[in-house]
Design brief:
There is one protein chain. The protein is an alpha/beta fold. It folds into two domains: about 280 residues, Rossmann fold, CATH 3.40.50.11440; about 80 residues, Alpha-Beta Plaits, CATH 3.30.70. It is built from 16 helices and 16 strands. Helix 2 links the parallel strand 2 and strand 3. The longest helix has 14 residues. The mean pLDDT is about 90. Bound molecules: iron/sulfur cluster (2 copies). One iron/sulfur cluster binds next to helix 15.
Length: about 375
């Protein structure tokens, strides 16, 4: 039975979050249904980069703390790991409040620094993921529900991209290029290489607008859980009212007939999704409208049909983070200003995602701007 549960939780008070997660898991038989005594359980929150919890960029420490407690009670040994987009994991964990929880609960923080080959049988045959992620007895995925400039939404499936070690993420972006469906397929293959045993989504405060790094916190007041991350993401998208045509990961999963992608077969439990639904949730601007158009055409008119990043010189401190993260290396700092070679830019928006100063905006191509008015 493919179950996704949803509970209303209005604040990050430790007690409220813990009770909310316990209620979510009761439908499955509690944490003991997932964790057996003596197992090493890897918790994978979203620790994109060093931002405080109230910025809604990272999974809230209260959610991490509650899951640590429940894993311990089930007899498991929790550890917390990730590979941030920018900076050392310990610094990111300190800023986002998770390090304090780990110290208080004497829980190990595991940097995803050592890659290990995981052979897949999909399109991407050799993918290296972090050794602690592959070797854990159990994995509990703890995504933050946010908008995403390239993929519209980031939740359970996308959060697992953090299992790719450091700079290898850029190489995967480069392989997929501008093809969002191909990038979605790669995300799905990463998930299939090592399926998480449980997904618990922090949507008490989500991010709307220019996610995943520069959007605005939006109170949604919900926690979600499920075993299948594709189904969890589908219910999360319903909650936010995101049309299916913008959900690349879910569309590709459906096309491939992956488990969990049959909406009709998801059993929704707990608080009704329709009653929890938020209205007017702001999505990122649609960044391309190349759906179904022939490649020769989209190549010719791509600047008209796509959105692209533009620097705001007054906010840019020329720190070079975007330049170092840019998968095809098309950002240059020259004569005190930031330059982007748009002919080679693959519109992945990693630069915006990781800029600590919100110094990169999005400019829509002229045709895209017209189309965006009508969709
Ligand atoms: S745009 Fe942002 S990340 Fe890039 S150099 Fe400027 S401040 Fe740094
Ligand atoms: S400039 Fe930004 S959007 Fe373009 S390829 Fe580089 S990181 Fe991606």
């Amino acid at each position: 039975m493919n179950i996704v549960t949803l509970e209303k939780v209005q604040s990050y008070s430790r007690d409220e979050v813990r009770c909310g997660i316990a209620r979510l898991l009761s439908e499955f038989g509690g944490m003991g249904a997932f964790v057996k005594p003596g197992e090493r359980v890897l918790l994978k929150p979203n620790m994109l980069y060093a931002k405080p919890p109230e910025a809604a960029v990272t999974t809230h420490p209260a959610v991490v703390a509650a899951v640590i407690d429940l894993v311990r009670e089930a007899g498991g040994t929790p550890v917390v790991g990730d590979s941030p987009g920018v900076g050392k994991l310990s610094r990111v964990a300190a800023k986002c409040g998770i390090l304090e929880v780990l110290e208080e609960t004497e829980t190990e923080l595991v940097e995803f620094s050592e890659p290990m080959e995981a052979a897949g049988d999909g399109l991407f045959r050799r993918i290296e993921l972090a050794r602690p992620y592959l070797e854990a007895d159990k994995v509990i995925n703890l995504p933050k529900l946010k908008t995403h400039g390239m993929m519209t939404m980031t939740c359970a499936v996308k959060n697992l991209f953090g299992a790719v070690v450091g700079t290898a993420k850029a190489a995967w972006h480069l392989k997929a290029g501008e093809d969002r469906d191909l990038f979605a397929r790669m995300l799905l293959e990463i998930y299939l290489l090592r399926k998480p045993d449980l997904n618990i989504v922090d949507a008490i405060v989500a991010m709307e607008g220019d996610g995943p790094g520069s959007g605005d916190p939006r109170s949604v007041g919900v926690l979600l859980a499920g075993v299948n991350p594709v189904s969890v993401d589908m219910v999360a998208a319903e909650l936010l009212g995101i049309p299916k045509k913008f959900l690349y990961v879910e569309r590709v999963a459906e096309k491939l007939g992956l488990p969990g992608s049959d909406r009709a077969a998801i059993r929704r439990c707990g608080f009704p999704v329709e009653e929890a639904r938020v209205s007017g949730f702001r999505l990122p601007p649609v960044s391309d409208v190349q759906w179904g158009l022939p490649r020769f055409l989209t190549r010719r008119i791509r600047n008209l049909l796509t959105a692209y990043p533009v620097p705001f010189p007054d906010r840019c401190g020329l720190c070079g983070i975007c330049r170092d993260a840019c998968p095809p290396g098309v950002i240059e700092i020259r004569n005190g200003s930031l330059r982007i070679d748009y002919r080679k830019c693959i519109r992945c928006f990693c630069c915006r995602e990781l800029c600590p100063s919100n110094a990169l905006g999005i400019r829509e191509g002229r045709l895209l701007r017209i189309i965006n008015k009508y969709i």
